[in-house]
């Protein structure tokens, strides 16, 4: 294994390949972007990584598909034991990584399991592999610590984790002091309808909201629209997995066709928001901190400002279908 030394005299992996966007963001947050030699087709943050060689690409042509078509195609491939992603094995062999960051949480998020094992078989020297599969905010911080340990930058990881933990506690403390906790619904997919899962419900709770339809620490699942109607959310956030804001706004336009859409309190009170899911919610990486701040602003604008990009969210007004 090839290593170099950093300023703290710790061994740093010289050649890192990331099999998922959140891992790419972790590597860069730890100051190791120069050692990142391979990424996925979805890695887009920080923008400078987009010039890196793409090792992982999608096996499903999602660009020209509807949400329902994507859901159907992905489900069929998973049920058939096929991967949703493909690894460029020739390029991976050429890159000869010291460290591969993969995952085994979600078959539709990145290569996992058998795909990683097959990829390793093409390499002359076996690299270290770290699987990143957190299901909570604490788990995300722990995985960042594991990346720091594997990459040889423990001190940088610990500094980042300490600052992140303090920020989350400041948000939680402010939210706890507020007199209300609005009913929230985070819509993780629109067609079919999915609630939020894993770390997003925890983010909502820290931000001062309540989402009883969500599944904290578990997979998001399909839910019937009547359950949303019964929950009667006061704040509704549209955050389909893998979508940036422009696409979310486009997809959200169809929500007016749902029965009783105009009767939802969030709709009546103009508290429906499209959010950049890819940047702030879908990826279990460093920017979930900003995502929690964004949720706090959307749920309690009187108590929390949003200092991030204007492209993070948009208030949307969708009239009920005639």
Summarize the structure.
The chain has 322 residues and is of the alpha/beta class.
Tell me what you see in this structure.
This protein is of the alpha/beta class and 322 residues long. The chain folds into 2 domains: 3-158, Nitrogenase molybdenum iron protein domain (Rossmann fold), CATH 3.40.50.1980; 180-315, Nitrogenase molybdenum iron protein domain (Rossmann fold), CATH 3.40.50. It has helices spanning 21-29, 67-79, 89-95, 114-121, 137-151, 154-176, 200-206, 225-231, 245-252, 265-268, 277-280, 288-299, and strands at 3-5, 11-13, 16-18, 36-40, 54-58, 85-87, 99-102, 128-131, 184-187, 197-198, 215-216, 235-238, 272-275, 313-315. Helix 7 links the parallel strand 10 and strand 11 (215-216). The longest helix has 23 residues, at 154-176. The relative contact order is 0.12. The model is unreliable at 1-9 and 106-110 (pLDDT under 50).
Strands side by side in the biggest sheet = 6-5-4-3-7-8
The CATH class name of the largest domain reads Alpha Beta
Structural class by sheet pairing and helices? alpha/beta
- For this entry, what is the oligomeric state of its chains? single chain
Order of helices and strands: EEEHEEHEHEHEHHEEHEHEHHEHHE
- Large-scale geometry: globular
Say which CATH homologous superfamily of the largest domain is assigned.
Answer: Nitrogenase molybdenum iron protein domain
Number of strands: 14
What is the residue-averaged pLDDT?
89
Radius of gyration: 20 Å
Domain unit count? 2
What share of residues is helical?
Answer: 25-40%
Name of the CATH architecture of the largest domain:
3-Layer(aba) Sandwich
- Taking the alpha carbons of the first and last residues, their distance comes to 65 Å
């Amino acid at each position: 294994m090839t290593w170099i030394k950093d300023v703290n005299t710790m061994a740093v992996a010289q050649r890192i390949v990331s099999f998922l966007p959140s891992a790419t963001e972790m590597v860069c947050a730890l100051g190791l972007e120069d050692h990142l030699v391979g990424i996925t087709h979805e890695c887009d943050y920080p923008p400078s990584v987009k010039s890196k060689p793409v090792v992982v690409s999608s096996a499903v042509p999602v660009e020209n598909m509807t949400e329902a078509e994507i859901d159907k195609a992905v489900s069929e491939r998973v049920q058939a034991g096929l991967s949703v992603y493909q690894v460029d094995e020739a390029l991976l062999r050429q890159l000869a990584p010291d460290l591969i960051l993969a995952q085994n949480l979600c078959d539709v998020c990145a290569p996992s399991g058998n795909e990683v094992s097959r990829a390793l078989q093409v390499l002359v020297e076996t690299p270290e592999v770290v699987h990143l599969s957190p299901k909570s905010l604490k788990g995300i911080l722990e995985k960042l610590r594991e990346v720091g340990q594997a990459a040889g930058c423990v001190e940088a990881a610990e500094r980042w984790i300490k600052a992140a933990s303090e920020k989350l506690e400041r948000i939680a403390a402010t939210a706890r002091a507020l007199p209300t906790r609005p009913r929230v619904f985070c819509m993780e997919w629109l067609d079919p309808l999915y609630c939020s899962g894993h770390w997003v419900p925890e983010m909502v709770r820290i931000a001062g909201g309540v989402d009883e339809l969500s599944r904290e620490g578990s997979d998001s699942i399909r839910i019937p629209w009547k359950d949303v109607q019964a929950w009667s959310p006061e704040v509704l956030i549209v955050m389909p997995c893998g979508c940036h804001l422009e696409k979310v706004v486009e997809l959200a336009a169809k929500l007016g066709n749902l029965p009783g859409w105009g009767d939802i309190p969030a709709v009546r009170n103009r508290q429906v928001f499209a959010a950049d899911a890819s940047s702030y919610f879908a990826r279990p990486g460093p920017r979930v901190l900003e995502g929690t701040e964004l949720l706090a602003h959307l749920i309690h604008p009187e108590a929390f400002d949003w200092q991030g990009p204007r492209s993070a969210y948009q208030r949307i007004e969708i009239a009920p279908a005639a």
